[in-house]
Amino acid sequence: MEKILVVDDNIQLTETISIYLENAGFQVFHAENGRCAIESLRLHKIDLIIMDIMMPEKDGISATKEIRYRDNIPIILLSAKSQEEDKVEGLDSGADDYITKPFSKDELIARVKAQLRRYKNLNKMPSRASEILIRGLKIDYDSKSVTLNDEIINLTPTEFKILYLLARNQGKILSIKTIYESVWEQEFLNSENTVMFHISNLRAKLEIDVKRPIYLKVVWGQGYMVE
After folding, report:
1. CA distances from 78 to 67, 96, 97, 190 (A)
2. Cα dihedral angle (204, 208, 211, 213), rounded to 10 degrees?
3. Which residues on neighbouring strands pair with residue 219, listed in sequence order?
4. Which residues pair with 49 in a beta bridge?
5. Per residue, what are the HEC states of 2-36?
6. Calpha distance 144→167 (Å, rounded)
7. How many CB atoms lie within 10 A of CB 226?
8. Whole-model pTM above 0.70?
9. Cα 171 to the chain's mean position, in Å?
10. Is the separation of the CB atoms in 99 and 77 below 8 Å?
11. pLDDT digit string (tens) for 47-61?
C-alpha cells in the first residue's frame, strides 16, 4: 500500500483529503507544517507528499526546497493562488505538480496516481547506458543523479526524466508533444506550458547563461535538443 503524507495546518481540509485518499486505497500520514513534514520523512517511508503552501513555521515552498536536497519523492503543492507566477514559483521550488484550490476528489486522486506512475516508471525506465557524459555533464541513470563538473545538480524526478530523455536522444530534436507524452505518459492536450516550465527550471540549473545554452537548446518551432 502506497503511503501519502498530507501536509496542511487546516485540519478540516486534511481530514477531507485523507478520506479521499484512504477510499482510493492509500495509507495516509499527516503533518501540520513543513518542519513536521521533514521530520515525518525521517520516520516513515513516504511515496508521495501533498503539501499546502501557506503554513506556519515552515511553508510549503521552503519545505519543498529542503526536501529536494536529499530526496526525489514526488511532491504536489496545494494553493488558493492560481496566477501563473505562483505556479511557476511552486514548480521552480522542486514540486512536480501544483493544484489550485478548490479541487475535486477525482482531480486529486488522478494527479496522485499520475505522479506515482511517473515516479515508478522513471525508476524502471530501461536505459541504453548507465551513464551519459556530455561536456562535463554526467547523468547517472542507476543512481538517478546528475553532476556538472563534479558538482551535484538537484533535479526533481520529472526534470531528471526530461533530461535523460533528451540526452538519450542526443542530436535529435524532440517536439514538446513528444516530450510530454514520453514523460507524462498522457495524451498531449495544450500542455506546452507544463513542458516549458520544467525545461526552464532545467536550464536554470544547468546553464551558466540561459541565453547561450550549452546543453538544452531550443529549436524554434520544432522543440528541444541536446547537441
Report:
1. 16, 11, 9, 22
2. -90
3. 223
4. 5, 75
5. CEEEEECCCHHHHHHHHHHHHHCCCEEEEECCHHH
6. 14
7. 23
8. no
9. 25
10. yes
11. 999 999 999 989 999
CA 145 distance to own-chain centroid? 14
Residue the block writes with cell 520523512: 41
pLDDT tens for each residue of 105-147: 999 999 999 999 877 766 555 444 578 888 889 998 888 899 9
> In the structure grid, which three cell numbers stand for residue 76, read together?
504536489
pLDDT attached to residue 184? 83
CA gap 147, 94 in Å, rounded? 17
Per-residue pLDDT reduced to its tens digit, 66-111:
888 777 789 999 988 877 788 888 888 888 899 999 899 999 999 9
Distance CA(174)–CA(192), nearest Å, equals 13
Burial 55-75 (b: 16+ CB within 10 A, else e): beebbbbbbbebbbeeebbbb
* Span 154-164, average pLDDT: 92
User: Which residue type sits at 86?
Assistant: D
Contact 43, 18 (CB under 8 A): no
Euclidean distance between CA atoms 227 and 45, whole angstroms: 38
Three-point CA angle 102, 1, 158, nearest 5°: 60
Name the CA dihedral angle for 82, 118, 162, 131, rounded to a multiple of 10 degrees: 150
The strand pair at 75-79 and 27-31 is best described as: unpaired
